[in-house]
Amino acid sequence: MAVELEMLYREIKPNYDVRLCTASCFQKTISWLHMVEDVEFVPLLHGDELVFSSGLKYTSEEWLRKLVDILNDAHAGGLIVSLREGKTFSREILDYCNAIKFPLFSSSWDTPYVDIMHIFSVILLQNEQREINLTAALKNAIYYPQSEELYQSHFESHGFFRDMKYRVIILSCHTYDTENGNERMEQIEKALRFAMKNGIMYEEKGRLTILVAGYRTKDVYREFQQLCRQDSNIYVGIGTVVNRMRDIYISYEKAYMAYQLTKTAIPKNLLDYEGLGVYKILADVKEPEIYPAFVQETLGELLKYDRENGTEYIKILEAYFENECNIINTAAALYCHKNTLAYKLNKIKDILRYDILSNENRTKIMLSFYIRKIEGETKD
Fold it and tell me: Which of 18, 243, 244, 299 is least surrounded, with the fewest CB atoms within 10 Å of its CB?
């Protein structure tokens, strides 16, 4: 549960002689603190630590450059070096740190590191407890929405109020799963925590569940659209906006529905529930067991014929409907002559034993294809 380095710096800036020497904190977040006097101790770091150095070994620019390089490779969050009176960092060092976006701070020789580390530790621990409480509250709001006593007080004590506009987003990137975790997911979570400060997020079963409050629809969509454009292995489902805390579970259900469709029916890695069209109706049905019976009634004879004869009439019929029942366009899509296609379509009509172009039957056929996509049935 990390805290923005910029916020930690603001906390001590008025009272301690610590100065940010690089252009900014580069959106770094800090998970803990560590004293490092020599590069040999850097392997002890886990990443995202703010590193303190007494400066006793800072006798050359080469030493500092080497320390910065190794800390950066270890994903440290920044470095504070105590400098003797009159000593400053060289322009070359500062330019280098700015180039690699590594925060570098100086402190006076008598700056009490113990006091600063104590202040930072308290902030980090308080933030960790805050995140634990908010994560538990969010899970309760999703799974036990009627029991408001399980989440309302935690939300409101941290600025999430009863009548705010809430939205849930679900994200995954399983391509990057390894035995040691998912480093890509960790990077995404860090970036989102910085970009969407008024939010709560937690990872479970390889999925990141995100609750945001008060953000405009276009801003939320733009943030996740950029992520998904940069990486096609990221899958995102965006839920509806709800206007009450007790309705957060509804947004979660819609987000999960959209997320599931990215992996089955709709070949996109970002889906907003509001843009699902007919899939909203199909996915909202509370008795999905009616689907197989409906598909069997509509397309069962054709599916059976394909299985028994090794044909692919079901794919031909689907292509025909995807091309607005236009023989010329369908023939082009299937790379066959229009007369050959006309013959196969007549064969399909004979197998199904009904007019595939009547309004009622066209609707039933299209719905059946939508259902098959939802269920991910690529083979029969």
Answer: 243
- Tell me: the pLDDT tens digits for 167-206? 999 999 999 999 989 999 999 998 999 889 899 999 999 9
Regarding whether 138 and 259 lie in a shared domain, the answer is yes
Domain end position, chosen among 276, 303, 323: 276
* Torsion from C-alpha of 158, 188, 261, 379, nearest 10 degrees: -150
Instruction: Give the HSE-up count for residue 356: Cα atoms under 13 Å, Cβ half-sphere.
Output: 25
- Residue 334's identity, in one-letter code, is L
3-state secondary structure of 236: strand
Q: Which long-range contacts (CB under 8 A, 24 or more apart) does 86-90 make?
A: 89/21, 89/64, 90/61
Q: Which residues pair with 328 in a beta bridge?
A: none
Q: Of 186, 142, 173, 165, which Cα lies nearest the Cα of 270?
A: 173
- DSSP class of residue 37 equals S
The boundaries of the domain holding residue 151 are 125-276
One domain for residues 230 and 152: yes
Between the alpha carbon of residue 169 and those of residues 208, 209, 280, the distances in Å are 8, 6, 16
Residues 246 and 198 in one domain: yes
Residue 161 sits in a domain of what CATH number?
3.30.70.270
pTM: predicted TM-score of the whole model, two decimal places = 0.74
Q: Check if the beta carbon of residue 28 is closer than 8 Å to that of residue 78.
A: yes
d(CA 238, CA 224): 9
DSSP secondary structure of 279-305: HHHHHH-S-TTHHHHHHHHHHHHHHHH
